[in-house]
User: Fold these one by one.
Assistant:
Number 1:
Amino acid sequence: MSDRTVHTAEWAERALAEAAHHEPASREEQVLERIERARRRRPKITEERVTLAHGAGGKASRTLIEAVFVEAFRNPVLQPLDDGATLDLGTGRLVFTTDAYVVSPLFFPGGDIGDLAVNGTVNDLAVCGARPMYLSAAFVLEEGFPLADLRRITASMADAAERAGVKVVTGDTKVVQRGKADGCYVTTAGVGALERPVTLGESQVRPGDAVIVSGPIGEHGITVLIARGDLDIEADLTSDTAPLHDAVAALLDAVPVRMMRDATRGGVATVLNEVARGAGVAVTVDERALPVRPIVSGACELLGLDPLYVACEGRFVAVVDGDHAEAAVTALRRHPVGEGAAVVGRIEPGPPGMVLLNTAFGGTRIVDLLVGDPLPRIC
Amino acid sequence: MSDRTVHTAEWAERALAEAAHHEPASREEQVLERIERARRRRPKITEERVTLAHGAGGKASRTLIEAVFVEAFRNPVLQPLDDGATLDLGTGRLVFTTDAYVVSPLFFPGGDIGDLAVNGTVNDLAVCGARPMYLSAAFVLEEGFPLADLRRITASMADAAERAGVKVVTGDTKVVQRGKADGCYVTTAGVGALERPVTLGESQVRPGDAVIVSGPIGEHGITVLIARGDLDIEADLTSDTAPLHDAVAALLDAVPVRMMRDATRGGVATVLNEVARGAGVAVTVDERALPVRPIVSGACELLGLDPLYVACEGRFVAVVDGDHAEAAVTALRRHPVGEGAAVVGRIEPGPPGMVLLNTAFGGTRIVDLLVGDPLPRIC
């Protein structure tokens, strides 16, 4: 993280020095200065209580993570805030990751909380470059939860584990009184082996790299939202929940990959902001290149949502060497989960920390981290 | 597990053959036959909904685990149902474990959900013979939960991690609406290295071994119960929550250890039943040897509880070579968490699966797995 910080600070200093020569400062320069000031501030939570926004993956989540969790657990393994932690155990490198699943409803077209909990953790291991191997599963059950539903969930976990080639090897169950949970929450953790000699992460990203999305976006989020039944929409749509490890391995074999992240809570927009901020670069995205099925863009229009922010559970964003962008897409398209892969954008030197969308209408707009949570409990 | 089953079946066959020579069958023989019949039956859940008893660590928990989780995730690593799973990664052996924490209240004398979540997972790794190294932490937060409380919890997790020499390296946070949780649930998973060439487990237990408890029992459970404030009891008692890895390492260095388990939910009685059933042996316990502080036995009497079933969070049960029982206690007593260690019982060949308590009054009673849950949400 310190490398990036230096990089960004230098960039800002240059920008400010240049600005001093061209008084009055341009709007862009003023914006940059504001960004830099914000970056130098320690993250600080102004709220006194947890809000749904703290769980949404956007700005509030980031502040909560940095001000509370990183502050408390400060250590170099945690610091990169990747999808998983890379552990060097002397005898070999492992990736270790965890996610809690609280999706509502528990069952939805194309999946349920069970396969979500397996695929999500498998995917976090995969995008860190590891071969997913072992999972743990901890359940918090609400008193009165139907055992038939629990069996259905564990059966779909077992199926998902089989498909992903992982084993659920340890677990725990707690039961809380009625009204102290919402049926069933599942937390999985995963361990995978880092067998490839590749180094992945935001620190590897550089201007000229290409940004790839592995398939049509937003299908999981919209499916869950419609499954809640309080919208007057019907759509023939299923969740994209799927294990990504095979497609990820194919990509790693085919081209030089800088980093990957699965686009879950907060969607592709949130991943791209993490890339831009983490790497101290800008990401430009071509709206016309974004793979979005008409049924998803239609539902998003009706709901006032931007598909860029809607969660996927079987899609990932990859930053690859710009010269190998087409080879990357070709490699991904050989896999069912990567059939709709597309080059959607490019890494630029600056303005650092910014994601810029070139819209279908010829304009450019900033794609920022979300402040609120339009879609609570989507995963 | 199959070894044990064979052992038990042979034992029962002998018992039944002997019984045939001495008609009518004695009461003990009838009991044994009933036990054997029950053992041969597949676990079956008769309830249609989850009850608090399913989370209590007793009979219902065991049935839930065997009928639902083991049934779904069936694999040889999960099968022993130990506190952690031992993973052979080619390059070295690891232990991987997880636990969900739902204790109520979140803060109690001597600790809170935070250090409980760290110590609990550290202890699960330690009693599996591993050096605890890395933890993950996943939070399910209720909308409206005070951030000051979250900071207090993460601070005590950080302190506990520091004391245990582990790092929290990855995590996740989800937020659910008001009324869908109870403030804060924490799930930790842990990874530790198996560096000693020792094999631990119920399969190592044999008649003549000694049963050791590492310190006075029941303090955590009674402390939490009193902290709930709906009893008219005041007691100067604090939770025993503590990391056990140092005491465990000292024990492993000192004597031949067969198996260890921390006595959390369900208390020492539940661990002893797991030993008896898992190893196909009997465990006899001397009530007068059990370390119980007068304040705990007094509170238990008032509450109608048996301290043998009350959760500890910083105590473990060890089965060691019978010839080294005193050396084991001496090694443990050198550590603050083991100061009150005592030899409390002995492994006998049969009746297999039974825990028998020689009471202070000279009688003998069966200590069975609990059916209900007298103490929900104690950890």
Note: The CA atoms of residues 286 and 358 of chain B lie 5 Å apart.
Number 2:
Amino acid sequence: MNPSELTPERARALFRAGLETPTSGFAPGYAQANLIALPREAAFDFLLFAQRNPKPCPILDVTEPGEVSASVFGGDLRTDLPAYRVYRHGELTEERTDVTDLWRDDLVAFLIGCSFTFETPLLEAGVPVRHIEAGTNVAMYRTNRECRPAGRFRGPLVVSMRPIPADRVADAVRVTSRYPAVHGAPVHVGDPAGLGIADLSRPDYGDPVEVGEGEIPVFWACGVTPQAAVTASAPEFAIGHAPGHMAVTDVRDSFYQVP
Amino acid sequence: MNPSELTPERARALFRAGLETPTSGFAPGYAQANLIALPREAAFDFLLFAQRNPKPCPILDVTEPGEVSASVFGGDLRTDLPAYRVYRHGELTEERTDVTDLWRDDLVAFLIGCSFTFETPLLEAGVPVRHIEAGTNVAMYRTNRECRPAGRFRGPLVVSMRPIPADRVADAVRVTSRYPAVHGAPVHVGDPAGLGIADLSRPDYGDPVEVGEGEIPVFWACGVTPQAAVTASAPEFAIGHAPGHMAVTDVRDSFYQVP
């Protein structure tokens, strides 16, 4: 099984069968998405939160209450991601590979753009993506930047970090800025302290990655931000993906490219 | 009083004092916005409708329930537009210049991008805008294109039309495509029948405008679409602007320009 040769459907079948792995590098050329499913009564507040924070929360699709697939995702949202996190009153209570028995009729699922989507164009532009080379999960951090609140939802901006060679930073900006629906251009380049990140070697989510000689850490807004908002805001119930373990959609990366 | 020399604040003061006029050409350089205010219990469905139909319904701002101003609009949403339309169960029941006594604590106001915003850049690019020259309201039409429904909301796409000289159509596309937050590039160029518009001289909203020799009708998605959705979907209560009688915001046009 070579992740780079899988179709979205085949990748989802493997995850459904129990393969538990970060999805970076899987089914290249197809967009990946973050999941956050919330009860209908919290859905307006969250949709407004996403609307007000489009860099971390670019909405790709929203289901009707109770639906288990989406127009961009032909699979089953309850089984076809590699892993899930379940929150009750803001507490992370479980991590699982199947949430079929927890899916409620009143759950509205939000699919939110993921920066894994622009990694294929980055690689095609010759910009190295270290965590794919290393076969690890991307490093993600909670920052000291607060999102704009909406109704009951508030919380910090979460970012993903990729070390980029100094002479490729401009290319990384140029390429990713063409994909605003999957977080777009970086929110910060360089000193992690500017985002309140004390230690790059201790990410809040995912795996650490070394910043090599001649490289600079580059930070993009991250679709784990909704889960940080769930932690901060404590809605009664929520289901998210396990960070880095995304929904592989049926939509081509190029669909989300702007000129 | 020269509309082209007013600040947003001064324009709003005139409207508050009773001036009832279409706002095209007012306070040039500042973005204008469509208004639709709906009860909180319908707000999620509408926000999702807007999310699913970003060409006609690009959201600039959403208020908390009961608020009467917005981050993009320093005035009073109940008095500072030149005219309003009031809907009860989908029926247009009143047109007024002040809705203070009708504003409810549970109303959520959505401010939606308006194509008047890109008319200044059009004029600066030498593309004529006929209805400004004529001092009339822009011509708007319901089309045979259905929006993507969401919850209780469905309805047709509404468009605005500007006649453009054949050799300036490319410029009109190029300039307006830089402003996706205020409807962006045209949805249709040429034959009105392609949108199901039988007679250009009979717009559904606003004033007719002649398509001259050597000109072609160019159609942009229009922020009256939410009011057509109110008509089609019959929420219990809604307040919109009178078509063409917009909220003049405090935000510069250039804020909404993308590269």
Note: Chain A has two domains: 3-114+233-256, 116-221.
